User: Fold these one by one.
Assistant:
Number 1:
Amino acid sequence: MATAIQVEGVTRRFGAVEALCRVDLEVSAGERVALIGPSGCGKTTLLKVLGAQLAPDEGTVEVLGRNPLLLNERELRALRSALAFLPQDLGLVPNMRVIQNVVGGRFGKRSLWGALRDLILPGLEERRRIFALLGRVGIAEKMYDRVDSLSGGQQQRVAVARALFQEPEVLLADEPISAVDPARARQLLELLVGLCGEEELTLVVSMHQLELAREHFSRIVGLKEGRILFDREADALEAEEMRALYELETEV
Ligand SMILES: Nc1ncnc2c1ncn2[C@@H]1O[C@H](COP(=O)(O)OP(=O)(O)OP(=O)(O)O)[C@@H](O)[C@H]1O
Ligand SMILES: [Mg+2]
């Protein structure tokens, strides 16, 4: 199977903090991986490196066969538009409508004029696509509602629709289920994993809930203090490894 993501020896520092330390990770095209680990272990930093949003200090990154550091601005924009990033804070514009936020997912691919026109009034074909996409994430009736009138869980669905509207090859989701209750978290994760399966997208999702991760992902990567502690088939994960991952929180 083709390789979608190849990370070798990646280190990233913020001042004295080593957020990532010699991280190696390879993800095949179409594979779905959960990235777990306690707060501050480097999940967001790693996802940003994978999303070509943050450069490593050391090591190499190849996403979809390209090293972001070697690309010119136009090539980098093209690469980023193939990588949808669902940020931890969702990155939605609260005082705009759902449809406008979803359309925003395509800005990387449009000319400025096309993007502005979309923002003012998406064409009929676009509106049909958005309606269908919102239907798939279960909030079609909210298409013309303002984002700040929706619940946290509904806003997460808007962010998922926005990412998919971009028609990416890789979806990087940073704690997409953190703001909802356990039942909705499971539902949203099912939706995300299901949609990515249908579209054959490569999916990397960070989260804290190990049990949910094991339910929905066959491969689990555990990150602790910027290092990969384990990278396993979910079924092969041992209690000792899981304990070691959580241990950090009591140590600190
Ligand atoms: N922009 C930044 N400036 C300074 N330090 C940073 C920055 N981004 C991350 N860090 C530090 O790098 C480390 C890893 O942070 P990161 O946000 O990747 O963790 P995380 O696993 O996503 O945590 P959480 O689960 O709380 O979201 C932390 O110690 C954090 O303080
Ligand atoms: Mg984070």
Note: The beta strands are 3-14, 17-28, 32-36, 58-63, 83-86, 170-174, 202-207, 219-224, 227-233.
Number 2:
Amino acid sequence: MRTLEQSFPKKRVLITGASSGLGKALALEFAGRGWKVAVTDLDAARIKETADAVRAAGGEPLEMVLDVTRCEQFEAAAHRVTEAWQGLDVLVNNAGVADAGRMEDGLTLENWRLLVDVNLWSVIYGCRTFIPVLKKGGKGHIFNVASGAGLLCLPEMASYNATKAAVVAISATLKTELIVDNIDVTVCCASAFRSNIADNERIRQCSSVAGRGIMAKIKQTSITAESVARYSIRSMEKGRLFSLPQADAGVMWALSRWMPEKYRRLLTYLFNKRKWLFAPGT
Ligand SMILES: NC(=O)c1ccc[n+]([C@@H]2O[C@H](COP(=O)([O-])OP(=O)(O)OC[C@H]3O[C@@H](n4cnc5c(N)ncnc54)[C@H](O)[C@@H]3O)[C@@H](O)[C@H]2O)c1
């Protein structure tokens, strides 16, 4: 197994949504290994905070405001890293937002659009913009952050599941498509880890069983963004398509592939009995 540094001695990575949660943990993990890290997110002050932490951890930050719903901002970012670093080795499409609720009344159309924009269009823009940059350098790695939700189709999370399943599909497609270009692809399908994703008014007000259970789990789980970041890097080094840091998502996914009807019955049972991720306040 080659380390990322052996594969990419120039050590240049761009991360979206890098000033919180998994994005920040990945930025610091790369920094600790001496990488140049393009720290991108929405808010300049939080980007600066993360960039300072990247520098302190031994990395070389490049600060950039990048709203992932705006294709032209990806193009500007590509221009900037090309100018500053003459290319890029690893693209991390991490920025994401969550939502939960029943299809007919919980999930608003406005929020559907937000989820599709932030979770899906971002990955399309990121890949379309940066694949030519990686190709120019003769190699690269794309790390897309989807979710276990994209594999498991949990109830009352249609918008989140749909966007994350699409990210899994894009990643699997590109894995084969880009082999000839020496570009590898890994997709993160983590289940709940601690981050700020549930920390917004809409999720706090959310009355759905799944929403409340999963969001409570994100707040209380002992799984940290840092441990998911370390696992993510190992998955890239092993050349894996799927990176599943937690066993529960892996077991349920395997069951859903091999015995889809049994999986559906089990999921319905767990949901109706308020068990597993659906337990209130677990
Ligand atoms: N926390 C979990 O349990 C969990 C599980 C599986 C997958 N994920 C995925 O991990 C990724 C990171 O989420 P997190 O849990 O660390 O959450 P987080 O809220 O801590 O971090 C998400 C980051 O994305 C940024 N972001 C949001 N909208 C943006 C936009 N339009 N442009 C640029 N940046 C934007 C936010 O500012 C924030 O810094 C997401 O894609 C999420 O879906 C999270």
Note: The chain has one domain: 4-252.
Number 3:
Amino acid sequence: MADVELKRVSKRYVHGRRTTETLRDVSLHVRDGEFVSLLGRSGCGKTTLLRIVGGFVNADGGEVLVDGAPVSQPGSDRGMLFQHPMLFPWLTVLDNTLFGPRATGRNSPAARARAMELLQIVGLGGFEFHYPKQLSGGMMHRAAFARAMMAEPKILLMDEPFGALDALTRAGMQQFLLDLWNRRRFTVVLVTHDVEEAVLLSDRVAVMAAGPGQIVETIPIELPRPRTYEMSETPEFVQLKRRVRQSVEQTPARGAMVGMQLTAGG
Ligand SMILES: Nc1ncnc2c1ncn2[C@@H]1O[C@H](COP(=O)(O)OP(=O)(O)OP(=O)(O)O)[C@@H](O)[C@H]1O
Ligand SMILES: [Mg+2]
């Protein structure tokens, strides 16, 4: 089981005398094996919410329960992919990927073979012995992705993991994630700016609005699975994309912040 329940979660940030109310009464239930995307304009609190689920940030109010138990710190049940990939700079790509198994005493030739295989899949074959500073931004994201998948977490929390990738690589990574999820059905919460990505991958899309951050609507994506890219041209897909995009567009823009990547044509 890997069920995530947010109950009236709130968060304020204090800067000097000013307080920003980042999240107010956010409730969301992500069922075991469900794939939910959080979509919303820049600054609406998506990263903050994901970090709270990951246990990296504490909420000021409300509760986060994983399988009914309150979350107060990170745990190996939840894999987290940060918006800015966090690799250990002193470790090679392979050693970064093997960090989890080593830390938990599960390092073995089989783990190493699995790490090599995952690095191939994410397109980093040949870069196993490179250090993070020798990689491009997109390659770092892919290495962080391989490391997170290595741990086989029950819950995968991803903060715009494919945002820095070119369209072709992104499509490959999305397909890889879909295939993996089809096989293992872990629980996923994905933060994205990309309406098409949210519709392609998710069972439900939670649309967030800023000032203070709230979930304004949760839209079920009732498209058949397994999903493939070809589906993105079907009328059902295009209609859902329009529906989700309109929901986000209706949320107020926050100050001069921009950042919604609204995919054209749909
Ligand atoms: N550590 C922090 N200290 C102070 N304020 C913060 C902190 N983290 C986030 N905030 C504020 O909380 C709000 C939401 O930030 P958050 O990063 O969660 O948004 P986001 O939806 O992930 O945006 P983006 O799409 O640009 O990544 C912003 O107003 C931001 O300034
Ligand atoms: Mg963010």
Note: The longest strand covers residues 18-30.
